[in-house]
Amino acid sequence: MKLNNSDLLNLSLEQIASAIGDPTEPVFTLLYQRHPELAAFSREDTSWQHYMIQEILQNLMEMAENPDTALAIIRDMTLHHQMIGLEADTFKGMYRTLHDVVVQHLSGPHREDMTALWEDSVQRICRSVDSAF
Question: Which CATH number goes with the domain that contains 124?
Answer without folding.
Answer: 1.10.490.10
